[in-house]
Amino acid sequence: MHFLKTYKMPTNASICHHPEIKTPKPMGSPPPSSSIANGGGGTGGETIPNLHPDIIQAHILARLDGPTLASTSCVSSHLRSLSTKENLWRHICSSTWPSVNQPRAKQVISTFPSGHRSFFSDSFPFPNLQSVKLNVKSSTLATELILAVDIYYQGNPICSKVEEIETSSSWFLSSPFRVDLIDPKNSTPAPIKYGVGKDNTGLKHMEENLSLSWIVIDPARKKAVNMSSKRAVSVQRHWLTGNVQVRFGTVMEGDEGWGSSREMVECGVVVTCGGNEGGDMHVREVSMVMEDMEGKGLSGVESLVILEGVMESGRRKKGGKEKYEEFVERKKERKERKERRDRVLDLVCLIAGCGAFWSLILFTAI
């Protein structure tokens, strides 16, 4: 039980009330780590290895979230063998992302090197990529992608969907990359219990309470990545329809060098919510696009190369609004530089044209 003293457990766990688990007495200092791993080094109470494995799994490990369960597996070989059980990680994945309960998604995840544990490791850290190195010539592009998407309002899932995309056709590879997850004619049945008014208070509420997970799965590589910023990076009302557009964006390094339009690219997901003013709102549209620094949409083949680099880059830190705002600011600066160059070029052309005109007049007069 010394493990429970040295490791912080969830506050809602009631494992210490189990009849076979006694609360440890206060101690001046925790026992050595070797004692914890071997199950000794204390007086009174039960040690973890002495408990039946079923009790540990049902009353301790099953109550942990993904990051805590991963940390628990590092304590000892005994806990590692119990913490890596597929059923524990399957439960964590299905409760974190309800969309992966769909049969096709479950079947693909089961082929990952460590099943749902590998999938969680790929999908839980949200990407904020700084140094992805891409090589288009050596890339073996995916022929199929599976999208597992979950939208949450105040922490509760209101929309979960799985979409399969065939990516080997010439039409997909040459067309602008865009995925429309929900038909605009069919809004989600789960309402958002908040009426957004015309002031900024309602928009702020949507920014703080609507979250998104958009996991891209490559069945062939047995890899996955979460392309959502999780929290909204911008919220605005459409000037014509009045619908609220909540944007989730991930900014990445592109496949071209400094100064090019694809120096950085953004994977943007827009969730469009509509409804009667002052009443319930519903998710009406969900779409993903890939854009460069000039706002131009990337083609299917260009987007696949970017996504491949993301999946192969390993564990990532969480991105968010600050990174998106930096990207927007750099886009603005790039646009201003281009406009200045265009004005200088126009002025040079005007001067050259005037010079040629007056030269022609003088030549004619002579």
Automatic annotation (TrEMBL):
Residues that span the membrane, as ranges: 344-365
Keyword annotations of the record: Membrane, Transmembrane, Transmembrane helix
InterPro entries assigned to the protein according to its UniProt record, in alphabetical order: AT3G44326-like, F-box-like_dom_sf, F-box_dom
Occurrences of domain F-box (ranges): 53-93
Alphabetized Pfam families for the sequence: F-box-like
UniProt superkingdom: Eukaryota
Region (Disordered): 15-47
Entry-linked SUPFAM superfamilies: F-box domain (SSF81383)
Protein name: F-box protein At2g27310
Species of provenance: Theobroma cacao
Gene giving rise to this polypeptide: LOC18590266
